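Q: Sequence in, structure out?
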Amino acid sequence: MICKDRVVIVTGAGRGLGRAHALALAEAGACVVVNDLGASLRGDGTDEGPAVEVAAEITARGGRAIAHAGDITDWAVGAELVALAVETWGELHAVVNNAGIVRDRMFVSSEAAEWEAVLKVHVMGHVATTRHACAHWRQRAKEGRTVDARIVNTTSGAGLQGSIGQAAYSTAKGGIASLTLVQAAELARYGVTANAIAPAARTRMTEEVFAEAMRAPEEGFDAMDPANVSPLVTWLCSEASRAVSGRVFEVQGGRIALSDGWRELPGASRDARWSPEELSDIVPALLAAAPTPPKVYGT
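A: Exactly. Output:
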C-alpha cells in the first residue's frame, strides 16, 4: 500500500472531494484525521455528522480514522488538529487542504462580508493547520529526525485564470497557488514538499453552477466523479512523491496535467526611460508577439 502507516489530515473531508480523498488515503494504508465543520455550501452552521460518518465508514472497511469537526480557519484549531494526529498515531506525514465555500456574485455587486468569508475559509483554512504542521516538522528536523512530509493544497482553474461571477473565490484560489510556491521553496530544507491540485469534479460547489456538465452519465466512465481526483492526492501524500514540489496539477476524470505559472515573456529594453508616447508603439508590439492568454471561465 503506497501510504501504509502515513498519517494524514484531510480538511473538508465530510463530503465531495475531501471525502473521496479520505477514503482513498485510508484504502492506501494511511491513518486519516477526517476534519469537517459540517457547514453549508455558503459556510453557515456546523454539524459533526459528516466527519463522524466518513471516519466510521473508513473504520468499517478496516481502515484507521478519527473524526474532527473543528473550524480550520481558527489558528488554535489548526494546532489542535496537528496535536490530535501526533497524539493518536505518533506522527504526522501530510496535510491535505481541501475545505472551501463559495459566495458567487458579480464583482460590482459583491459585499465585504462575502469577501471576508471566502478569503477566510480558503486562505486561512489553508494556512492555520499547515502552519502548525510545519512547525512540528521543523522541530523534528532540528532534532535530527528524518522528515518526509507533504502539503497538498487545493487551488482551482478559477484561481489560475479567473471565473466570471467568482471574483472572491478566484482571488482566494490564486493566492493558494502562490502560497504553494512559497511553501515549497521555504520548507525543502526540512524535508517537506508542497504541491497543489486544481480539480474538476462533481461537488456541492460545481453541481449548482455547472449542473449539466456535472451530471453523472447513465453508463460508462463518470469523468466528474470526485474519486477520480483522489489517486493523485494519495500519490502526492506518499513517499513516492518525494522529488516533486512547487507544482500545480490540473486533474479531471482520467486526465492529469501540469499547470505552468506566470512567466516573463520577451520584452523591449534600452538604457533609458521610455516616454508614455513611445509606449503606444512598444506595448502593441509586445502584445502581438505574446501568446494568447487562456480565456476567463464564463467568457
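The first strand starts at residue 7 and ends at 10.
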